[in-house]
Amino acid sequence: MVRELGEEIDLEIGTGDDDPSFASTPLISGPPREPSAEEHDESKQMAMVSQLPGEDPDLSKTQSMKRKKKVVKRWREEWADTYKWAYVDVKEGTARIFCSVCREYGRKHRRNPYGNEGSRNMQMSALEEHNNSLLHKEALRLQMASKDKIIVDKPIYAKALMSKTAGSIVEAALKRDPHEVEFIQSLQEAVHALERVIAKNSNYVNIMERLLEPERTIIFRVPWVDDRGETHVNRGFRVQFNQALGPCRGGLRFHPSMNLSIAKFLGFEQTLKNALSPYKLGGAAGGSDFDPKGKSDAEIMRFCQSFMNELYRYLGPDKDLPSEEMGVGTREMGYLFGQYRRLAGHVQGSFTGPRIIWSGSSLRTEATGYGLLSNILFLNSVFFAQLILADMNKELKGLRCVVSGSGKIAMHVLEKLLAYGALPVTVSDSKGYLVDEDGFDYMKISFLRDIKAQQRSLRDYSKTYARSKYYDEAKPWNERCDVAFPCALQNEIDQSDAINLVNSGCRILVEGSNMPCTPEAVDVLRKANVLIAPAMAAGAGGVTAGELELTHECNSIPWSPEDFESKLQEAMKQTYQRALKAATDFGYQKDSPEALVHGAVISAFLTIAQGMNDQGCV
């Protein structure tokens, strides 16, 4: 009996015929293993022995077993992907096939998935019986929802810190939360930026240690019923990271990869981002491992209502108000707010974000679903890029820009780039990326929106526009560009992608999503003097827009879209200037590639530290 997927499994051998340690070892995914040279020689030797006259009966039996194992091995290599769910264990002295998630066998999980006679019909019949069982469906859903959360020997990239004090902060976090990779990465970047601050005032070490521990972490069950009447369970999160400056604001993300590490990383980033805005607010983040893709409106409504049934008691205008994030749009926010209003018994403190404004303001979303407020809200990163270029006596007009993602942020970035006269040439999805050498225009962007609304592939775009091409299993970072706008997921740009960006001529990278670069990628970009505009600063305008929106609703101030955009641009200028000033105050050159990144963290941290220091041990 052997342990790796793709190797032979003979259910008829006993527990003492091979390595007994297989019992607790699951057969997890992996490519079929070729027999080693040693095993090959052993097989040859056995074949030679079998040809000798007067062979021993035991050897003949061994040969028969080996031959049988080879037959099973060939079959398992052919069907390895089909049976990733299975592992072998001993039950009451007999080897059985178990489900690798729920660890059950028998009626709900057929004891012998190979079938009684080993025929393919029996094999597939057993597979269908297993996969159609409700028990396995739920086990498989949990496995898919948590597959990105399970970290097995995944290395954490540790930055070299000059200060032992700064290093001790990271070391303590690693000991406390060793498996929270995204959160560790985020705090490492922050501590690296704060080295000079900590060196000047050792009292900040204690404040940083308190800041890195969330004030409140809420994890809860979210049961819901699909359209077929089947019950599902997801996990909900809300991390209220810090409220030293005021009530929390932060997004909700619905995505299968969502876990506690990502919730903490997003909450930490949001805390710093909110501290940079003119409105002093606390930071929070949350969401669920629920995947809204492929779900009906009724299913999403039932999930959102169940999610809010637990979360509402922690929300309120003076506590915490959520906003949109990945997987949560106007529809989801509407369902969430409706249930919150029913449970809380009031409508004070509407949820923030580019959504329908039910009070009927002049910034109401238009019939297309992409109204003026939505457009204004996502100009942040583009306007921030314009501020950077203005300091270089340049402008966006005529510059070739690559954009990743094809969601709300990416689409609005495309529109704003067009408004500034730039040439956006790419968008991407989880399967690959699309490049249009002629650049996108408003008609093409509208077509892209239709494709995404109908849940079609971006490759359908290239069937209409001959000068475009869709590349499977690739990223847009090797396309020639002047400015890059990553607007998809965290860590979408790794070291090789960063090298491609440098070789493609990129001089500025503006983060549209949170933490889009791995630490290794950041090192490559900095060494190549590529200026990075952090999401913390470039996205601070979103916080401002949300608060302006709430102020507009509560006070019924008659603002036009032009007034709103003007106020938002002024807030973005202040954020940019604060980040640069903080960087120069601590010895970073204004034109340094890390000036904006470090300056934004320093400015935000000093603001939070002042509040925490004034309030005592909080």
From TrEMBL:
Keywords carried by this UniProt record: Oxidoreductase
Enzyme's top EC category: oxidoreductase
EC number: 1.4.1.4
Bias-annotated ranges (Acidic residues): 7-20
Positions with biased composition (Basic and acidic residues): 35-44
Annotated ranges, domain Glutamate/phenylalanine/leucine/valine/L-tryptophan dehydrogenase C-terminal: 361-616
Record's signal peptide: none
Pfam assignment, any one: ELFV_dehydrog
Region feature Disordered, mapped onto this chain: 1-65
GO biological process, one term: glutamate biosynthetic process
GO-annotated molecular function: glutamate dehydrogenase (NADP+) activity
A GO-annotated cellular component: cytosol
Family, as annotated: Belongs to the Glu/Leu/Phe/Val dehydrogenases family.
PANTHER family in the record: NADP-SPECIFIC GLUTAMATE DEHYDROGENASE 1-RELATED
Protein name: glutamate dehydrogenase (NADP(+))
Annotated source species: Nyssa sinensis
